[in-house]
Structure formats: structure tokens, C-alpha cells
């Protein structure tokens, strides 16, 4: 005696961790630590991923605060521990969830036909936790899309095109575009036979054209043009 008892006020440490709830793999993630009131402080930071401890780089000083940086290399939960003078800081351990948008795969999307459902698959089972966003647009406007969960983060997606034009499929995971997107899906007319496109009204005494569209081979084409004479009295 006398016996010295060390008292630590961990509430002096201010952490900013909410932005680390979802973090991308293979990219640096960082957070700031501040110590109110200054004075001597011993901060210890540790990050444990799915397969072990990760290197953490801490920079700064007691006056401006400290920044801790680490790079997750595996999909899954990462536990962040911060100790102040040997005591856990309030709000830790904190769990950050690492994801990998490059591991989301989009199945083949076949050419569509007006009025008939177009379906394809999206597999995010290996990408980790997050939000999957799927949008399909035609001529710059989004169209109704049905997403059917199949279990284990796999989905069946369908839409019914209403017009014959290119449709754009965009898939994003945690607001990051999936590899291969956007996809361009061609949509043809609903008729089984050929379609004819006319340029519209034209001037008299000048050549006019029409366009015949057909996916296969056409033979014995016969085109008849009938005029209408309007009489004025």
C-alpha cells in the first residue's frame, strides 16, 4: 500500500463506424477516432476477418485524432475492436460486413418478343450481404419488373416488353454495377410474319420507300400500292 487504481473513461473516445456496415473487398476502408480533452491516451485497434487478423494502419495524433485503415480480402463479417487504455471503447466490437459485387452473376438473357415474358436469373449467393437492385428500361423509361426469390440469394427476374426496341438491363449490388451490366436485350414485334415500316407521308412526284423486316428468308414478295384520288367540288 498505497494501491494505485487506474480509472479510464472510454466515453472520451469518439468513433465513426456507421459507414462501415457494408464495405467492398479489396478496397481500403477507414474510420476516425477522436479523444476528447486531449492528454495521454493509448489506443489499440484490431480487425478480425473470416480467416484471421488483418493488418491495420493507424495515423494521426491526440490533437487531430487518429485514422485507422484496413483492407478486407474476404467476403463476410469483420469484427473491429478499439481499446482505450486497455478498455473496450463504447460501440465496439463493431461488425462490418464485406461484400464482393464481382461475384454476382447474371444469366443469359435471350432476345424478346413484344407481349411475351422475358426471364433470366441473378445469382448473388457468393457476394455477401447487401442490396440487389434490378432495373429494366426501354427508350429511357423504366418498365415493370418482377423479381422472384429462389432462396440462397438467387432470383428469377421477368418482364414483359410492350414495344419492339432495345431494352436495357441494369443490375447493381450495394450501388455498384455488376460485371457485364448494362445488358442490351433486343425485342422484336409480336407478329410471326414480316413487318413493314413506312416512313410516313411524302411529297408527290418523288420516290417513296418502305422497309420489310423478317428474321428469316423471304420469297415471292409481292407489293401492291393503291392510291386514293380525292375529288374536290
Task: Jot down its keywords.
single chain; 6-stranded mixed β-sheet; 5-stranded antiparallel β-sheet; elongated
Short description:
The protein is an all-beta fold. The chain is built from no helices and 23 strands. It has strands at residues 13-15, 22-24, 29-35, 43-49, 52-54, 57-61, 65-70, 76-84, 87-88, 94-99, 105-106, 112-113, 118-123, 132-138, 141-142, 146-151, 154-159, 167-173, 176-177, 183-185, 187-188, 195-197, 211-213.
Topology summary:
Layout (H helix, E strand, L loop, with lengths): L12 E3 L6 E3 L4 E7 L7 E7 L2 E3 L2 E5 L3 E6 L5 E9 L2 E2 L5 E6 L5 E2 L5 E2 L4 E6 L8 E7 L2 E2 L3 E6 L2 E6 L7 E7 L2 E2 L5 E3 L1 E2 L6 E3 L13 E3 L20
Parallel strand pairs: 2-10, 12-21
Antiparallel strand pairs: 1-3, 3-7, 4-5, 4-8, 6-7, 8-9, 8-10, 11-13, 13-17, 14-15, 14-18, 16-17, 18-19, 18-20, 22-23
Our Rg estimate from Cα atoms comes to: 31 Å
* Proportion of helical residues: under 10%
Low-confidence stretches: none
Cα end-to-end separation: 126 Å
Global mean pLDDT: 86
Computed structural class: mainly beta
Strand content: 35-45%
